[in-house]
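ERR on first pass: missing label on line 2. Operator R.T. fixed the label and resubmitted. Corrected input:
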Amino acid sequence: DTAVSQTPKYLVTQMGNDKSIKCEQNLGHDTMYWYKQDSKKFLKIMFSYNNKELIINETVPNRFSPKSPDKAHLNLHINSLELGDSAVYFCASSQAEGLAGGRWSYEQFFGPGTRLTVL
Amino acid sequence: DAKTTQPPSMDCAEGRAANLPCNHSTISGNEYVYWYRQIHSQGPQYIIHGLKNNETNEMASLIITEDRKSSTLILPHATLRDTAVYYCIVRVANYGGSQGNLIFGKGTKLSVKP
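pass 2 clean. output:
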């Protein structure tokens, strides 16, 4: 069973369009994230979200908005797509940080990515 | 910005140990060292993490120097499937919290060759 899944895997669209990428996790985690990996392969956090708080990376344009219908889903909506939005977008999830074996442990599980191409 | 420095690329022969270094000279006392890897066209995958003691799991070993300013990830018997970009990340523990930022740098591209 896929722990973190994303749809679609590929998305090709025209500049100016509005699109959404869906993310679902079946791990029972309480926090989800969106990352963007650009053409230079830099992986950057965009959002982190749980039922209490949304933290937005200040560099993310407000055309991007995460929407969570429930704890297992965090969808990414993008308005007025631009050429520079072309990238691979990864969803991730994690459980609350916990103490195990004397160490605080925290692990993020990533989805397979969605390659967005804006023409 | 990433607080770690890694070599951009390394090669390793299949079956040999791969030793991936990471410098984190500005690490704070409450920051952990995490390692993730990203195999081509896939999402990043957690490998291991540690605070100050050496750690080992089924995937790898993590050796942290006594002054904690550097660490080495060891893949004991590298296979072709270990070819990936390996990221060393320094992160403060968010005690009892559920959110945390992983700040990825450029990583080390490890090529395992037959």
